[in-house]
Specification:
Order of helices and strands: EEEHEHHEHEEHEH
Shape: globular
Radius of gyration: 16 Å
Number of helices: 6
Mean pLDDT: 96
Number of domains: 1
Largest sheet: 8 strands, mixed
Distance between the termini: 18 Å
Length: 236
């Protein structure tokens, strides 16, 4: 079983908690930053990180809500997420990972679901340390979050890594039309990507903690593809 632990790192004037899952065996290992969905670093996000560790990656899930009260409803916290601050948090997590003896500093990817899928795209467009990005039904890529930063899609030209994307045909955020627009923008800048849209699935189809949205067959198919993608791009 992977080893899991909590750590905190300095970010600006505060500190940010990170859930870390590490594989068994001698390292150093490739690493994956897990950008949490709207519910934060909850059971689902921790399971994603642990499953990645089972596949041989050091997985780190930073709490991007660390500037908000711990007991605040996460739907409320989400309203205050700012892209400039998020990039600062992602960069701090990358720096932390690169300092760990268990991590290969030149082999770091990023993955995210829902809100975290948008964060994964934003991270790929903001930090060249990311060697690959995985987006699972990431909505809002076409829209700005706050007035302090542009929509992530406008930063596409900065991306220097391949992207794998998994989406539901019945989703509206992002809708298949939105996915097509993102793909066209990536093609425009010759960014290698592979997008898959699943029939019979909507938003959050991998989230086992939400029985209404969870689709086991599509969820496991995505896992069967994203792990080999990460291994191919990060050299596992």
């Amino acid at each position: 079983m992977p080893t899991t632990r909590e750590n905190t790192i300095p970010v600006g004037q505060g500190r940010m908690s990170i859930f870390i899952a590490e594989p068994n065996g001698a390292g150093p290992h490739p690493a994956v930053l897990v950008a949490h969905h709207r519910d934060g670093v909850d059971e689902f996000t921790r399971r994603v990180a642990t499953r990645l560790a089972e596949a041989g990656f050091v997985a780190a899930a930073p709490n991007l809500y660390h500037r908000r009260p711990d007991d605040e409803d996460r739907m409320e916290s989400r309203k205050f997420i700012d892209d400039v601050e998020t990039v600062t948090d992602l960069n701090a997590t990358v720096t932390y990972l690169q300092s760990q003896k268990s991590v290969r500093p030149d082999a770091i990817g990023i993955i995210g679901h829902c809100m975290g899928g948008r964060t994964s795209f934003l991270g790929a467009a903001s930090n060249p340390a990311f060697k690959c990005s995985v987006i699972l039904y990431g909505g809002g890529i076409l829209e700005p979050r706050q007035k302090t930063a542009p929509a992530p899609i406008t930063l596409t030209k900065n991306i220097r890594c391949p992207i794998a994307g998994f989406f539901g045909k019945e989703d509206q955020n992002p809708s298949p039309e939105h996915v097509a627009k993102i793909s066209e923008e990536l093609k425009k800048y010759e960014i290698r990507h592979d997008f898959r849209i699943y029939d019979g699935a909507g938003h959050a189809f991998q989230n086992f903690s939400n029985p209404k949205s969870y689709r086991e067959q599509q969820a496991e198919d995505a896992w069967s593809r994203l792990v080999p993608f990460l291994r191919a791009e990060l050299g596992r």
